[in-house]
Amino acid sequence: MKNNILWISIVLFFTLTSGTIEKTAFETTYFKVGIDSKGFVNSFVDKKTSHEYFPSIKPVPLLSLYKDSTYILPVSFQQNSKKAGEYFIKYQNGSLATIRIDSKGDYLRFELLSLEPRNGIQAVVWGPYPTIINEKIGETVCVVRDQKFAIGLQALNINTIEGVPDRDDSGGVIEPLPGQQLPDSLKDKIGQKVEVNVNVTGDMPEYVRLYRGSAAVKKPYGSELRLFSRDRRIARVIQSKQGDKNYSQYVEPIDVDFAGSAIAMFGCSAPSALDVIGKIEQGERLPHPMLNGVWIKKSTIPGEAYLLNEGDPALSIKYAKACGFKLVHMGDVFQTWGHFGLATPRFPKGAEDIRKATDAARKEGISLGVHTLTMFTTKNDAYVTPVPSDSLCKTGSTVLAKDLGKDDDVVFIKDPTYFKNTGNTHTVKIGKELVNYLKVSTDEPWRLIDCKRAQYGTLAIAHTVGSAIDKLTNDDYSGFFPDINLQDAYSKRLAQVCNETGIDLMDFDGFGGVSPTGHESYGSARFIDLWYKNLDRYPLTCGASTFHYYWHIYAFMNWGEPWYNALRESQVNYRIENQRYFDRNLMPGMLGWFTLSPEFRPEEVEWIQARSAAFNAGYLLRVDENIEKNGYKEQLFEAIREWQNARRANAFTAEQIERMKNPKNEFHLEKRDKNKWELYPVKLNRGYHHKFRMVQTGEPVTSKFIVNNPYQEQPLQFYITLKAVGNDLTATVSYFQFKINDYQTITLNAPLKAGDRVCCDGKKVYLCDKTWNKLSVISSDKIPVCGSGNNEIVATSEFSGDQSPSLDIEFKSVGEPEKVGKW
């Protein structure tokens, strides 16, 4: 219902108003905006082509007012005859806004100078502004584009934020792309929102689109751009829903007003959008970070693959150079989150040791970075224990309804509203004591039941009736958060860490557009803005999410983790959906995190590399000393280097890139000369199993497979992994044979046990250990040929008993090479 309030108000206004409405045009180099005498925008024109981008709907307010879920519309718009560039907008409720409008060449600048009388107005909304553009809708950057033209807004201060005050249009939506199949049960639910939590599910359906903001949104006529600003001096209570339960959060007032809210509006050719934003940043003194003399949005460095190693920095440098990477993520280096001390076993002298490591790495051409969960606060931090800060973030507060003795385990409270959402730790703060409780009673007198006193090193004392009791807000790791004031200390401290240590990357994990304080993305923007302003030099910054203001500061966004499923299954749809987000929001591509497992074969690494090349996206690769166990170690590193070299050289054709976008397609790349490679299509037939079953005495156990080779006739290639059945590690498989198309055979006479692996490269068959180190040649006979098309392969073996290991088998075939690069 709320979604339609603004448009219903506009329709009613025009129904009740008649007469000719004059129009004033405001122009930039490329763009013309029409505003009528009532204060409504009614035209967006590309000056070069005279094409109209305003849809065939009623005009919309230049600025609307918001109070108690109602949008209040303007009734007149006129120039201030005494001050050039100033305009007055009068509203239905009697409020009068003073607006300044300036043409800055490539963009228009709009600023709200004042609004009087306030009449209880809680927020002001720029627009929302509709366009007919529907191709690329940048929900974070607030720019919409088609092949020819772009229209965008940019907030010019941190209290002008994305979206509108009464709803959040971000999240997952059932919206299949062409060719994607939708279950019958969902075919009547296209456009409906769905929850996306890949932490729980491991991935997301391919027919779900994920929108990470609401600065721009899709509309039936095209798109809509919107920014707004709130009077944060007015306390609020916000409602949230978790499952089937509704919860409340009190948002404490702060001295931040919407007067001074300002935006830049522009229209330009689509390829010029990024350049215009750069001019806005410089002209309006927004963050415009430079890296090696290049604006971060134009630098290729943020799209590079990089390495994670949480051990010895010297080892990190070794692995980074082997991969051809220039950046190493060292992981978490902090004693606690909150005060962010640096003296740890890895770096006993704290900042001094980290500075030595960053200096040494830089001499090798390698940059080092660190990770933090930003405003997450660990329970062993001095802001929590032994004396908790009064500035820990609160969900809400009430007072004690009865005296509380120091040994009492039931706490009587006046109002249960903010205590029903227990959070992870069920923690309240009473004076300087932290108390955990099981739940809130369901009847009066309201009470916290089964309380545990003196938590996290605090001291249990008696408290008198009427004492304040605060429900503390939890982070996702069962820690706490700072409030809007204490977060300033976190921000300054993390800037100090960057300055002291010389790190070249700060990974702000757990940081996005929703502030735990309830102050929306203003709270997050305040944090990152203060951090940026306290730096002595700009380091790369990244995180798991971003928002409109942070877009100017961050280098890249990277998230998508490797530990939920097997490589080709772990968040694959999610990783690809992120690439669509990056593209429409003018961001560098990133595929997320991967782990270089000691059990990987080259095929696993090349699967990652093909996706990196296809989407022109970097990734994080987690590598530790366990990789030394891998029998393919040097081949893995070589594959990473060469694929990334080819990617940097833009060596792949558009047709090759399109094929590599499909995660089901596999490839192999071989270097032939400088800037010359050959790309081989690869087919891995996986999911074949051979295991013990009861048969007649003397009869061998057989399994029949149909294996498709889509390429030319070639020698058979395969991998076998032997897995234990039960706990028996001594039982064996012997006299193992493949028979191909009822004619050719290959026989392995060596006994095979659980943990063994076997590989055939088309020339010889090798017995390998668990991490693919070749232990011996178990067949050097001529390898049978696998024909083009379907092949029948029969596996036959003898098992030593019902506890003999099972065999997982993969067959591999390779197509003819394609030239890549400058031949």
What brief labels describe this structure?
disordered N terminus; 5 domains; globular; eight-stranded antiparallel beta sheet; 823 residues
In words, what does this structure look like?
The N terminus is likely disordered. The protein has 823 residues and is an alpha+beta fold. The two termini are 62 Å apart.
Average pLDDT figure: 94
Gross CATH architecture of the largest domain: Distorted Sandwich
Our measurement of the CA-to-CA distance between the termini, rounded to an integer number of angstroms, reads 62 Å
As residue ranges, the low-confidence spans are 1-20
Major β-sheet profile: 8 strands, antiparallel
Strand order of the largest sheet: 8-9-10-11-24-15-14-13
Instruction: Identify the overall geometry.
Output: globular
**Rg to the nearest angstrom?**
31 Å
What proportion strand? 35-45%
Number of strands: 56
Class of the largest domain in CATH? Mainly Beta
Short account of what is shown:
By secondary structure, the protein is an alpha+beta fold.
Please specify the SSE layout and strand pairing.
Elements: H1 5-16, E1 23-27, E2 31-36, E3 40-46, E4 51-52, E5 60-61, E6 63-67, E7 70-72, E8 74-79, E9 86-91, E10 96-103, E11 108-116, E12 123-131, E13 136-138, E14 143-145, E15 149-155, E16 160-162, E17 171-174, E18 193-194, H2 198-201, E19 208-211, E20 216-219, E21 222-230, E22 236-242, E23 245-251, E24 262-269, H3 273-283, E25 290-291, E26 294-295, E27 306-308, H4 313-323, E28 327-332, H5 351-363, E29 367-372, E30 394-399, E31 411-412, E32 427-430, E33 433-436, E34 439-440, E35 447-449, E36 468-472, H6 486-501, E37 505-508, H7 520-533, E38 540-543, E39 556-557, H8 572-584, E40 589-595, H9 602-614, E41 617-622, H10 633-648, H11 654-660, E42 666-673, E43 676-690, E44 701-709, E45 714-715, E46 717-723, E47 732-740, E48 744-748, E49 752-753, E50 757-760, E51 765-768, E52 774-779, E53 785-786, E54 789-799, E55 806-814, E56 818-821
Parallel strand pairs: 27-28, 27-41, 28-29, 29-37, 37-38, 38-39, 40-41
Antiparallel strand pairs: 1-2, 2-3, 3-4, 3-5, 6-7, 6-12, 8-9, 9-10, 10-11, 11-24, 12-21, 13-14, 14-15, 15-24, 16-21, 17-18, 17-19, 20-21, 22-23, 25-26, 30-36, 31-35, 32-33, 32-36, 34-35, 42-43, 43-55, 43-56, 44-54, 45-53, 46-50, 46-55, 47-48, 47-49, 47-54, 50-51, 51-52
Helix pairs in contact: 6-7, 9-10, 9-11
